[in-house]
């Protein structure tokens, strides 16, 4: 298939490389910054553009991989009521219906993974969630998705929002906790790498245990002495202290819900 990428960020880079490796032809790469478009297009043998009105009609599929805040306006400028082309976006939290009134055939291709431009990923193992405006477009989208991933699921915009929300908890919030941990260590001249085996084992356990069964630490049993001592250590960082308190409370409430007779009440 011939594909144009509207976007050249982390996700666009990775999906573009996966599509290119799968044998698809990348026609154009758009970014507001021509340097970004050129950097990606050079890896995909495509043409770089930095103006939406330069998007041509030579592609079969147009994939929008942009910030949610600019996605709608880009769709309005590019789709132009085209009845022959397929238009897709890759956003986890945006409805498919944003294409309505601007395109006839449209859908969503949402790869659920965290991406960085310079960190290669095995796209075949990434779950991709798709949705389409009609059966013909869904068939085309399914074929496209299966060419880059072995895990393709049909999911509505409504349910995809909750999937994206769960990913924010499982990935973005967890990574922010890493950042807090790294800063605490840095303040006391301890290298972050000492936490990496712990982080790796925590992630590995989830492949064998449920998150509830894998949970450990003072908040599970509500060890008041430890919790209070650590809370005081965060006295100079009120926001981190609040995160610590709320997280500990949530962990303990989950624990006593599972085993109400095993723990003191919070």
Automatic annotation (TrEMBL):
Q: Where is the DUF2520 domain?
A: 126-250
Q: Which Pfam families match?
A: DUF2520, Rossmann-like
Where is each Putative oxidoreductase/dehydrogenase Rossmann-like domain found? 2-100
User: At the top level of its lineage, which domain of life is listed?
Assistant: Bacteria
- UniProt-listed InterPro entries: DUF2520, OxRdtase/DH_put_Rossmann_dom
For this entry, the protein name equals DUF2520 domain-containing protein
Organism of origin is: Segatella salivae
């Amino acid at each position: 298939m011939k594909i144009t990428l509207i976007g050249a960020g982390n996700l666009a880079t990775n999906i573009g490389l996966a599509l290119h490796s799968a044998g698809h032809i990348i026609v154009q790469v758009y970014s507001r910054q021509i340097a970004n478009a050129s950097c990606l297009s050079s890896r995909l043998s495509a043409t770089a553009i930095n103006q939406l009105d330069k998007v041509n009609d030579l592609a079969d599929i147009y994939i929008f991989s942009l910030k949610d805040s600019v996605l709608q306006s880009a769709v309005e400028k590019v789709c132009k009521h085209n009845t022959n082309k397929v238009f897709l976006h890759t956003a986890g939290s945006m409805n498919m219906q944003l294409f309505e009134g601007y395109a006839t055939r449209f859908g969503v291709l949402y790869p659920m993974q965290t991406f960085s431009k310079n960190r290669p990923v095995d796209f075949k193992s990434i779950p991709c969630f798709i949705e389409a405006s009609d059966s013909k477009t869904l068939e085309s989208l399914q074929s496209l998705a299966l060419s880059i991933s072995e895990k393709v699921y049909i999911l509505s915009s409504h349910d995809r929002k909750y999937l994206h929300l769960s990913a924010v908890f499982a990935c973005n919030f967890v990574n922010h906790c890493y950042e807090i941990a790294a800063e605490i260590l840095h303040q006391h001249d301890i290298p972050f790498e000492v936490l990496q085996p712990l982080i790796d084992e925590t992630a590995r356990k989830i492949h064998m245990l449920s998150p509830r069964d894998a949970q450990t630490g003072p908040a599970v049993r509500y060890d008041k002495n430890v919790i209070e001592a650590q809370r005081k250590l965060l006295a100079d960082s009120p926001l981190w202290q609040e995160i610590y308190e709320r997280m500990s409370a949530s962990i303990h409430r989950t624990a006593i819900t599972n085993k109400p007779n095993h723990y003191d009440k919070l």
